[in-house]
Amino acid sequence: MSESDVLIIGSGAAGLTCALKLAQMGIRSTVVSKTQLQSGATLWAQGGISAVLDHDDSLDAHVRDTLIAGAGLCDDQAVKFTVERGPGVVRWLKELGVAFTLDSGAANNAEGLHLTREGGHSHRRIVHAADATGRAVETTLAGVALAHPLISVRERQVSLDLILDEARERVVGAYLYDRNSKRVEAVQAKCVLLATGGANQVYLYSSNPYGASGDGIAMAWRAGCRVANMEFMQFHPTILYHQGSRSFLISEALRGEGAVLRLPTTARCPRTRTTPRSRTTRTPSGREPHRARGGVLRRAARGS
User: Fold this and answer.
1) Closest among 302, 117, 52, 65 to 199, alpha carbons compared
2) Which residues does the annotation mark as catalytic?
3) Structure confidence by residue, pLDDT tens digits, 143-167
4) Any residues with CB less than 8 A from the CB of 97 and at least 6 apart, and which?
5) 4: which strand partners?
């Protein structure tokens, strides 16, 4: 049985960020990925990261927009916590080397970043790397992690279940299936972090990669953790449908820059550039998905 200080299951933005933060404190960690390290839902994200960087914007406005879009279902303290830390996270990613799109005429933000807009936002506050922000973030985090002496990586290893110490009522590791050797190994750890993403593969339509299958949620539940709020599945409101290919995501930033949705009659869909995704997906009847020429605009699960 091999051992690690911290075993991080999942190699997306959450898992890699945790590994890097632990390394800053001198703590060794092992990151486990189902496939290659640079994989998962983070890699597929297009639009960008919302953060208050414009001088004309404010944290209070961002919090207010989020609570309105959340239709009264948000945890106020969680929203405030996340919004307040947004600018610092963007600066940290920029320092790591994420190549965000710059704007030479951006007089309103000290970072010189190009800010776009997405549904639900009253200001331009979306930092992006062209239209492949997730790829820029994931590849940068992965590159830094691979070069760090305190971070080990296990690729093409699938987490099967957590190892429990019933007497001490705690998790002490995980069983990993190596896809190359076809063997199962027990990996011991002082701490296990589940950063496995969502369970959107239970949906017929999804813009996420196939690996987002709820493994971590299932392992946590079997270990005795409480699982709640499963109805709060993040989704993307627009995908491009094609009979001969898998549907893929169409960035919300398009609406933020003025793109419009149209119904089969070519009539303009009654949704604006600031309409949150939960409302964007509702048709006038509130039941059927919108069908547009050349594609189907559906409520597509995107992980949690």
Assistant:
1) 302
2) 277
3) 999 999 999 999 999 999 999 998 8
4) 140, 143, 144
5) 189
Say if residues 290 and 283 touch (Cβ distance below 8 Å): yes
Task: Show me where the domains of the chain are located.
Answer: 2-42+138-195, 48-130, 234-303
Residues, the chain, total?
A: 304
pLDDT beyond 80 at 277: no
List, for residues 15-64, the tens digit of each pLDDT value: 999 999 999 999 999 999 999 998 888 988 888 999 999 999 999 999 99
Helix axes 133-147, 13-24, angle to 10 degrees: 40
Confidence band of 270 (pLDDT split at 50, 70, 90): low
Fold of domain 2-42+138-195 = FAD/NAD(P)-binding domain (3.50.50)
Pick the more confident residue, 154 or 275: 154
Over residues 54-109, the pLDDT tens digits come to: 999 999 999 999 999 888 899 999 999 999 999 999 999 999 999 999 998 777 78
3-state SS record for the chain: CEEEEEEEECCCHHHHHHHHHHHHCCCCEEEECCCCCCCCHHHHCCCCEECCCCCCCCHHHHHHHHHHHCCCCCCHHHHHHHHHHHHHHHHHHHHHCCCCCECCCCCCCCCCECEECCCCCCCCCEECCCCCHHHHHHHHHHHHHHHCCCEEEECCEEEEEEEEECCCCEEEEEEEEECCCCEEEEEEEEEEEECCCCCHHHCCCECCCCCCCCHHHHHHHHCCCCCCCCCCCEEECCEEEECCEEEEECCCHHHHCCCCCECCCCCECCCCCCCCHHHHCCCCCCCCCEEECCEEECCEEEEC
Judge contact between 50 and 82, C-beta under 8 A. Answer: no
